[in-house]
Structures are given as C-alpha cells and as structure tokens.
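Section 4.2 – Deliverable D4.2 (structural model, holo form)

The reporting period included a commitment to supply a predicted holo structure for the target in complex with SN-glycerol-3-phosphate. Inputs used:
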Amino acid sequence: MDKTKIFAHRGASGYAPENTLEAFALAVSQKADGIELDVQLTRDGVPVVIHDETIDRVTSKTGYVKDYTLKELKKLTVMEKRFPAYPSSKIPTLEEVLDAVKASGIWVNIELKTGIYWYPEIEQKVAQIVQKCDMEHRVIYSSFNHYSIQKIKQIVPEAETAYLYSDVIWNVTDYAKNTKVDGIHPAVYHIKMADFLNEYIKSGLNVRVWTVNDTTDMKWLIEAGVTAVITNYPDVAVKIREQRENQNHAGK
Ligand code: G3P
Ligand code: MG
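Output (structure tokens):
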C-alpha cells in the first residue's frame, strides 16, 4: 500500500493567506506532497487562483472575479487579519503558481471552480497552461462540476481526474469507473456519516479526502490508507504520518 499523500488545501492555508504564492511556498517547505488550489477566470479570460467567485472575502474591494481584468486584480492585496506576517500577498495566476512550485516536484490538484459560473473555455485555458508549464504529469484535475471533468478528459484524455462532491452520491465508485475518472474526492464529514470509506478504498480509485484538519481524522485516514488527505495544516499531517511509520518500524 502506498503511503498516504499530504495535500495542502489552498496551500498551507492554516498559516498564510489561502491560495497565495506564500501559502504554496510554505506547503513546499512543510514537505507536503501536493497542493490544492481553486481556479476562476478574470474578465480577460486569465485563470487565477482564488476560492470564491467574488473578491470580497480576501481583499478590501468587492465584486466578481469575472468582472475584473487581471491587471485590476493585481493591484489588490490579499490579506487575512490572522496572518499579519503576510501583508502584501497578491492573487496569483495559475501560471505563476505552477512556475513557482515546479522545481519542488510537488503535485498540484487544480480545482476548477465551475459550480456557480461555468467560465467560457476554462477547461481549455487551464489545460493549455498546464501544458505550457510542462506539468501534465503532476496535475490532478477535480471539480464539483462533473461536466467540467469530462471536458478536461476530452481535451487531455490522459489527464488525471477526480470527482469532487460534498453530498453522498449513490454508487459513486461505479459512477467514477464507468465514466473513466481516476479518483473521488469526498468531504471528510460525509465519510464519517456511514461506512463509505471501506467501499471507496476497495474500489482501487484514488481517494483524496478534504478538508482534514482534525488530528484524529488525520490519524484514522492515514491508517486506513486513503490516497491523500487535503489539509490546511500539512506540517501536522506529515508529522502524524512520520510517527506512524516510526511506530510500525519499531513494532517489526
Ligand atoms: O478540493 C477540495 C476542497 O478544496 C473543496 O472545497 O470549497 O475548499 O474548494 P473548497
Ligand atoms: Mg478547493
């Protein structure tokens, strides 16, 4: 069984402003195996890394990402009060993030945020950037919009893909396999509701669970052998995984 990978949710967002170059650099230095990030499109059609459809929560301005040009967004600062050590972060483009993390060898889970606005051609634009950055073999595409995932598969048949979901889906493992998707990304709160995990792991699909911030959940999921946990605290998860490995060696 491969060891569970640790993905930093929106970067190491428990320590630095989410979805910024600073949060991604921290994830790399905390030895995460991967980062997860959210992509929306600007008015001029550039894939940018920001979670919400609006800029209200993370900047001092308001409005939709889709109504701002990249140049306008670049004038803004992403600031979170709880992280005063990062007073000048910016909204990065997808290309900037891929360029910044490429040398580290880290995996990138690109979440296409097409659940509210289905940005025109977002799948093509994102796939082009991934190709330009030569990151095809280290990218996993996911989305709550499963049509977006099928579109990615049409554009890049060999791309690694996963269905994201937060509610329980009937026979989700058959659904993913029948539609040729490589993985499932369930919410941690849903897999705790009933014994879904066993079925998921047995399916052989890649199972990456989000957002796993509780240490008890981290331990349980690593022990169960999920493909990855997606967490705001990659350093904590890495340590838990290390401790477990050391205990297993000592027990041999
Ligand atoms: O990709 C996992 C997770 O990021 C999905 O939820 O809302 O944090 O993007 P959200
Ligand atoms: Mg996300």
